[in-house]
TrEMBL record:
The keyword Methyltransferase applies. Keywords: Methyltransferase, Transferase. GO terms for molecular function: methyltransferase activity. One of its GO terms (biological process) is methylation. It comes from Streptomyces musisoli. SUPFAM superfamilies: S-adenosyl-L-methionine-dependent methyltransferases. This is SAM-dependent methyltransferase. InterPro entries: SAM-dependent_MTases_sf, SAM_dep_MeTrfase_SAV2177_type. Gene3D superfamilies: Vaccinia Virus protein VP39 (3.40.50.150).
Length: 271
């Protein structure tokens, strides 16, 4: 186990490229953050000109993350989180939600974006009782992720694997499925999988905007059907209401019926 604040893995092989838009920085821009460059703002504005609803999707995704983490802590009793595809720090990061409810919670963040690494120290402010750490690694290298995560997390105890808007960056669906399976195979019964991703077959305007973005030279993000997203949970026990539009996953009591957006997610338990 590590101290409450740990030093992130050094990233010596990457530099921040400010000439090409990057999805993590564009997402940060849509969420109202400041950790982005003019090229990201331009790409974000071009996207919203075609599909203004992307801001609703981005914020709905973040709200889904907050609600699912709160469920995991308060109702499922989870105290360990492996969050892969962290993105740039904004409000209500995984460790903030978890440690507000359970100060002893331990969180490992994983990302391979050099700008995220540059901001990693902002992620590493843990409660004294818990711990956070950061791994500079790619989702396509699950064995390395698991080996380093084990320095902070006790992977013999139930752990929540969080994959928020990251699997779309794995172009081959079978490979994405195999990555999820490898990670979940390493976690014990009672662990959970949380996935949310952009969905195809819901909103053709969104699909048009995403396809244009993918052809722009930026790192592509592959939308997948709801059935394909549901496939990540094969062999696990889905928590009600299953895989749904993120806005409709356990919305706050008393809130208006939310609109369906082309971003689907779910949470499931490993039996």
């Amino acid at each position: 186990m590590t101290d409450p604040a740990t030093t992130p893995e050094p990233a010596t092989h990457q530099k921040i490229d400010t000439s090409v838009p990057h999805s993590a920085r564009i997402w940060n821009y849509w969420l109202g953050g400041k950790d982005n460059y003019p090229v990201d703002e331009a790409a974000g504005d071009a996207y919203t000109a075609v599909f203004p609803g992307i801001v609703t999707i981005a914020r709905g995704s973040r709200a889904f993350l907050r609600r699912s983490i709160a469920y995991l802590v308060s109702e499922a009793g989870i105290r360990q989180f492996l969050d892969i595809g962290t993105g740039l720090p904004t409000a209500e990061n995984t460790h903030e939600v978890a440690q507000r409810l359970a100060p002893e919670a331990r969180i490992v963040y994983v990302d391979n974006d050099p700008m995220v690494l540059a901001h990693a120290r902002a992620l590493l402010y843990s409660s004294p009782e818990g711990a956070t750490s950061y791994i500079d690694a790619d989702v396509t290298d699950p064995d390395r992720i698991l080996a380093i995560a084990a320095e902070t997390l006790d992977l013999t105890r139930p752990t929540a694997l969080v994959l928020s808007n990251i699997l779309g960056h794995v172009a081959d669906y079978d490979r994405a499925r195999s990555i999820v399976d490898r990670l979940m195979d390493a976690l014990p019964p009672g662990s959970y999988l949380s996935v949310n991703d952009g969905s195809r077959g819901i909103d053709p305007v969104f699909e048009q905007a995403q396809d244009a973005y993918n052809s722009s030279g930026a790192i592509p993000y592959n939308l997948r059907t709801v059935d394909a997203i549901t496939g990540y949970f094969d062999g696990l026990e889905l928590v009600e209401p299953g895989v749904v539009s993120v806005t409709r996953w356990r919305p706050e009591p008393g809130s208006p019926v939310p609109e369906v957006v082309a971003e689907h997610g779910g949470l499931a338990r490993k039996p």
